[in-house]
Amino acid sequence: MKIPIQELPTNQLNALVREWSDALQKKQGQNLKLDLSRGKPSHAQLELSHKISNQPIENYFSSDGTDTRNYGNLTGIAEARALGAKILGTSPETTYAIGNSSLSLMHLTADTALQHGLWNDSRKWANSTTPKMITLVPGYDRHFTVCDSLGIEMVNVKIDAQGPDITKLESLVEDPSVKGIWCVPKYSNPTGITYSDKQVTELANLPNKAAAEDFVIFWDNAYAIHDIQFPGDELASIAEAAELVGTQDHVVQFASTSKVTFASGGIAFISSSQLILETLEKQISTFSIGSDKVNQLRHAQYLLENLDDHMNAHAELLAPKFSLVLKYLEDDLGGLEIANWTEPRGGYFISLDTMMPVADQVIELAKTAGLVLTPAGATYPAGTDEENTNIRIAPSFAEEDELKTAMEVLTLCARLITAREVINHRQ
Amino acid sequence: MKIPIQELPTNQLNALVREWSDALQKKQGQNLKLDLSRGKPSHAQLELSHKISNQPIENYFSSDGTDTRNYGNLTGIAEARALGAKILGTSPETTYAIGNSSLSLMHLTADTALQHGLWNDSRKWANSTTPKMITLVPGYDRHFTVCDSLGIEMVNVKIDAQGPDITKLESLVEDPSVKGIWCVPKYSNPTGITYSDKQVTELANLPNKAAAEDFVIFWDNAYAIHDIQFPGDELASIAEAAELVGTQDHVVQFASTSKVTFASGGIAFISSSQLILETLEKQISTFSIGSDKVNQLRHAQYLLENLDDHMNAHAELLAPKFSLVLKYLEDDLGGLEIANWTEPRGGYFISLDTMMPVADQVIELAKTAGLVLTPAGATYPAGTDEENTNIRIAPSFAEEDELKTAMEVLTLCARLITAREVINHRQ
Questions:
Q1: A50, A312, B204, B270 - which has most CB atoms within 10 Å?
Q2: Considering CB atoms only, which of B72, B262, B292 is closest to A69?
Q3: pLDDT reported for residue A161
Q4: Which residues contact A62 (CB under 8 A, 6 or more apart)?
Q5: Residues of B (223-252) whose Cβ lies below 8 Å from A
């Protein structure tokens, strides 16, 4: 059936609503417990890193002479910095390995930019009464939480399959209270798109166009090496682009191994100019006596050797799940003009957009059949998706059987809600 | 020779100065590299925990059902909270295991008290234009750094062998801008003293005497289980004392395994009332996706079984070093009335106080012979020891031979500087 749902006569639609209601009722009776809400690695993915955590350590000294078991070395051992540089496509000199969470490093960077400034001079965001950051939407909820927690206002800019609209960004940064932008440049959360070379070049130049002299690009490269199709997307180097136009003191890059080894048991990376890194190191020295460098050693020794193989093994586990979600979307919704979706070549999410403003209803209905989805609006600041269309699908954690059932429920709910809406509109 | 140096005739003093100068000159020619500056575990101490880091993990699930490898569980796995409770003498319900650094938890608590308040109401330190904390001096430099970094002023109160002077504290907290106090209640850094039961009871009641309704006791129990003589000192429970007088919402306790397993590769603990813990958890959720719970599992599984034996093994390594330092102090300085020192039954430091205001000169002179000591004044806010007497000795890291040479240098410098001062004063 490939006729757009809007074009069906009402009696046919009523029949479909009855059929789909019956089907959903059956699902509701099955006491299902399904969850596509968070981008968590699956059990099988976690097992891939068993050899990292269980590898015996004979020599605790890193190549730079640090005893990884003792105090000291706030910026990370040489091997870990090399690993971060490999993941981010930067140099070890401009890459630090700190803690287990890139989110914590982003919070630290925003907090420091706000309260102290990143440049060892008088510039700081708190000099503005209403510092703001640009949020590309739909986007990553935890970026919004960082802004919320620090009292930073957010300015939304819609991101679509073509990536960020640079002209719009250039116009926004004419406001001197606009201090920064959040970017997930590769396999963007949740849309899965990767910025084009042109967009990277233009973004690198954005601080030059900004009225604020303390403008910062937060380059959250969470999925830098998370291809699931090969070849994966290629992301241009923002560090190189920034160097060319002299904005290296306004770009900070982040990554972690949370989705490479163990979520929250991995290591995190930050890369920027020497000036910014030194400011952050000074800030870190006020509350830290160093990261877990033993864990850095474990990670770096294994991953510097085996990163590609390791990520390929992840891809082998993830690819069938992404294919399965896309197959269900195509089979059950294709041609009906109920929704659009992305087909990312990597990352952790597929983004579904209903054509009518019914995302919240679809998510609510799915819940009645035991399927938990990312809450409606979660991909927008303040949880408010004004168009009410975006549904984020996170296929990684569920087992294949669960995923099939979950997709049956999801597409059923999307069809049912849309059909009912169409009927209502005709009355 | 047990005659106080002040009582020696000048000609004898001059002869001694020549003798000691010659001795020091020899040391200066030996190209020594000695360091008694930081309380770092020694190589042999770190080796004790090899079995923890190298223990194979078969089952990554904690007893509360958490997959330690994945996201989630901000407050720590059940086993780790039980370990924290065992170390702090609290209950697992009121004890969280978070991150690898108690210092980070202290910074977080102070920052949250300042910016948001700990009580889910309108109270917060930032409501005061000049929030202050009481610092017991000599004390731990990193507490001062936390205050400095947050713009919190410090009010010094001298702590001696009798512990904190509660009457003085009660008078200070009449000032509503005095918002908290830093305490290292057991084997205090650097004096090594442990608060008496009476002092603990009276401190627990301090928030009731405070004019500030948002007064907080920071109970940094860093050396809770770090006895080196047996029996060690007994510290009364401040949680119980606070419960009795209703101040449980004003006491926060901290500990870590940094000096139990691996410095900075361990796990950290915080214990307080439910109200405060929930506020902090909410705050943590803005920048963290959880601690390294695999490391928590490693630590807790081993230490819940073997904590006493493990700490006894540390004591066996530390006790000879402390004895050696004390022997040198007694043999080389005893009876000369050059300095006083503490004889702690645990912890990481021996605190030496020169009788004349010459600590800075002694430390400088020692440096010329290759001995690094904690910088003069480091045990005071802003690095200013107004009496210029305190020298912190950290004997843990050096090997026995190095420690002997270091103590020879230190006592030589103390004698030489003091003798010169006495001579100068007579001229």
A1: B270
A2: B262
A3: 85
A4: A68, A77, A78, A79, A80, A293, A296, A297
A5: none
Q: How far is B61 from chain A (nearest CA, A)?
A: 11
Query: Within an 8 Å CB–CB cutoff, is residue A46 touching chain B?
Result: yes
Nearest to B295 among A67, A107, A295 (CB): A295
Q: How far apart are CA B385 and CA B158, in angstroms?
A: 11
Contact A70 B46 (CB under 8 A): yes
A282 touches chain B (CB under 8 A): no
Q: Which of B35, B262, B374 is the best residue to mutate to test the A interface, defined by the most A CB atoms within 10 Å of its own CB?
A: B262
Q: Is A100 close to B146, i.e. CB distance below 8 A?
A: no
Summarised one tens digit per residue, pLDDT across range B89-126 is 999 999 999 999 999 999 999 999 999 999 999 999 99
Chain B residue numbers touching A101 (CB-CB < 8 A): 287-289
A55 touches B at CB < 8 Å: no
Cβ separation of A285 and B145 shorter than 8 Å? yes
CA–CA separation, A332 and A338 (whole Å): 10
Judged by a CB distance cut-off of 8 A, whether residue A289 touches chain B is yes
Q: How far apart are CA A234 and CA A199, in angstroms?
A: 13
Give pLDDT, residue A160.
Answer: 83
Per-residue pLDDT, averaged over B312-317, amounts to 98
- pLDDT digits over B230-279, tens only? 999 999 999 999 999 999 999 999 999 999 999 999 999 999 999 999 99
CATH code of domain B5-46+310-426: 3.90.1150.10
Q: In chain B, which segments carry CATH 3.90.1150.10?
A: 5-46+310-426
Nearest to A265 among B53, B54, B69 (CB): B69
Q: CB of B416 within 8 A of CB of B24? A: yes
| CATH 3.40.640.10 domain span(s) along chain A | 64-306
| Helix intervals (H) in B31-77 | 43-47, 50-53
Q: What is the DSSP string of A305-319?
A: HHHHHHHHHHHHHHH
Q: For residue range B324-380, what is the model confidence (pLDDT) as tens digits? A: 999 999 999 999 999 999 999 999 999 999 999 999 999 999 999 999 999 999 999
Using an 8 Å Cβ cutoff, are B232 and B198 in contact?
Answer: no
Contact (Cβ atoms closer than 8 angstroms) between residue B109 and residue B274? no
Select the CATH number that applies to the domain covering A64-306 from these four: 3.40.640.10, 3.40.50.450, 3.40.50.1820, 3.10.180.10: 3.40.640.10
B265·A149 Cβ contact <8 A: no
Distance in angstroms (rounded) separating the CA atoms of residues B218 and B206:
12
pLDDT tens-digit readout, B157-192: 999 888 999 999 999 999 999 999 999 999 999 999
* Contact yes or no for A251/A219 (Cβ under 8 A): yes
What is the Cα–Cα distance from A5 to A337, expressed in whole angstroms? 6
Residues A147-204 have pLDDT tens digits of 999 999 999 999 988 899 999 999 999 999 999 999 999 999 999 999 999 999 999 9
Residue of B nearest to A147 (CA): B286
In chain B, what is the greatest distance between 2 CA atoms, to the nearest angstrom?
77
CATH class of B63-305: alpha beta
Instruction: Please name the residue of chain A whose CA is at the shortest distance from the CA of residue B284.
Output: A104
Q: How far apart are alpha carbons B426 and B420 in whole angstroms?
A: 10
A residues 65-104 closer than 8 Å to B (CB): 67-72, 100-101, 103-104
